[in-house]
Design a protein that fits this description.
Layout lengths: L6 E7 L4 E7 L5 E9 L5 E8 L5 E5 L5 E7 L5 E3 L8 H4 L7 E3 L5 E2 L3 E4 L2 E4 L8 E2 L12 E6 L3 E10 L10 E10 L3 E10 L3 E2 L3 E3 L15 E4 L3 E5 L5 E7 L11 E2 L12 E5 L8 E7 L5 E7 L3 E5 L23 E5 L14 E2 L5 E11 L2
Antiparallel strand pairs: 1-2, 2-3, 3-4, 4-5, 5-6, 6-7, 8-18, 9-12, 10-11, 13-14, 14-15, 15-16, 16-29, 17-28, 19-22, 19-24, 20-21, 20-23, 23-26, 24-25, 25-29, 26-27
Bound molecules: beta-D-glucopyranose.
Beta-D-glucopyranose binds next to β26 and β27.
Length: about 375
């Protein structure tokens, strides 16, 4: 049962024989918890549905901390799903490109899966050519998280926790991770990441939703993108940083003023899959990006405490996966804005550090804020 002030209702779902727990408060804020399936190790997996006072909905499963749905109004008030994903657990257990996932211990790539800390060389699981990507073979996107729903004055959410064991995927240290997902009444989906370790180790947590503000009616090439970054991280053919942070300077990489994603994508080999170095502001949280979808009028702004954002345009989607509402996920059918530190930082001494020591707390906050242009 969900222990939050308010009226608690249990509903038996006759057609599925499943028990559904609903939390309703007087002003109709809701958290619903229902079974989502069984993980390969036999653990029962849940799906949490959060609804805000405007009717916006976020669905989150404790398998991989995956956001399976985000229902956001268009300019006429129609609520539609703006993230790619599936409506059942099974496809998430199979191979998929991190749809909606909570990514760790290290979002993005570590060259050849190797780094040295205090004179000791560590070898990580290699799962992307010769490199380590998104935490390895069993990253946080495949972990069954403990989940506790909560309700605050203007928000409701789920707190996910897990302990990643010392040497899991090759990383030193027992890492205790807490991730708080919230849906606010200001139409914000917020993520707060915290982690502590008992040995020095790299940490770079992020979120991997693929957004499509048309709600799957077309690809994302007509979305208007602004990215608040004068520079980006130059990478080699394996998408490993060369160490250079290059000015965007009016090139196809320049999104300082809004451009449609597709207008210059042909000039970028493979499509956008780059970390942008965010311009610093006076506040701890900076506006990383603003995206406008002209037909629906949906606007998404991303704010973060992180120094970078990976802009990925679904270049490797190839139509082989079909998601919710029978939408085929073809090339460029979704884009990701993954707030994070830079790739391969453990091997790049000039980059902001990703090293966490015992006694310190890793923290990272990101807000995805939704509105419309009418
Ligand atoms: C990476 C891409 C990768 C995708 C799915 C993104 O974060 O930048 O290169 O293909 O994740 O794994």
């Amino acid at each position: 049962m969900i222990l939050i002030a308010g009226l608690v209702i249990f509903v038996a779902c006759k057609n599925r024989g499943l028990k559904k727990e609903t939390e309703k408060t007087e002003d109709k804020m809701e958290i619903v918890k229902e079974p989502f399936g069984i993980a390969p190790d036999g653990q029962e997996i849940d799906l949490f549905t959060l609804t805000n006072s405007n009717g916006m909905v976020a669905k989150i499963t404790n398998f991989g901390g995956i956001v399976t749905s985000l229902l956001v109004p268009d300019k006429d008030g129609n609520m539609e799903d703006v993230v790619l994903g599936f409506d059942s657990l099974q496809p998430y257990l199979e191979e998929h490109p991190y749809f909606g996932a909570l990514v760790g211990r290290y979002g993005n790539r570590i060259a050849k899966g190797k780094f040295t800390l205090n004179g000791i060389e560590y070898t990580l699981a290699v799962n992307n050519g010769e490199n380590h990507l998104h935490g390895g073979l069993v990253g946080f996107d495949k972990v069954v998280w403990s989940a506790e729903p909560f309700q605050g004055d203007d928000r409701r959410g789920v707190i996910l926790t897990c302990v990643s064991q010392d040497m899991e995927e090759g990383y030193p240290g027992n890492l205790t991770v807490k991730v708080t997902y919230s849906l606010t009444d200001q139409d914000e989906f917020t993520i707060v990441y915290e982690a502590v370790t008992d040995k020095v180790c790299p940490v770079n947590l992020t979120h991997h939703s693929y957004f499509n503000l048309t709600a799957g009616k077309s690809d994302i090439l007509d979305h208007e993108m602004m990215i608040n970054a004068d520079r980006f991280v130059v990478v080699d053919e394996g998408l490993i940083p060369t160490g250079e942070l290059r000015g965007v300077d009016g090139s196809a990489m320049d999104f300082l003023s809004p451009h449609s994603i597709g207008s210059r994508i042909d000039q970028v080999s493979g499509g956008y899959d780059h970390t942008y170095v965010l311009n610093e502001g006076d506040d701890e949280m900076v506006l990383a990006a603003r995206v406008i979808e002209p037909v629906s009028g949906r606007i998404m702004e991303v704010y973060t405490t992180e120094p970078g954002v990976q802009f990925y345009t679904g270049n490797f989607l190839d139509g082989s996966l079909t998601g919710k509402n029978s939408v085929v996920y073809s090339k460029h059918y979704g884009f990701c804005l993954e707030t994070q530190h830079f790739p391969d930082s453990p091997n790049q001494p000039e980059f902001p550090t990703t090293i966490l020591s015992p006694g310190e707390t890793y923290t990272h906050s990101t807000i995805y804020r939704f509105s419309t242009n009418q």
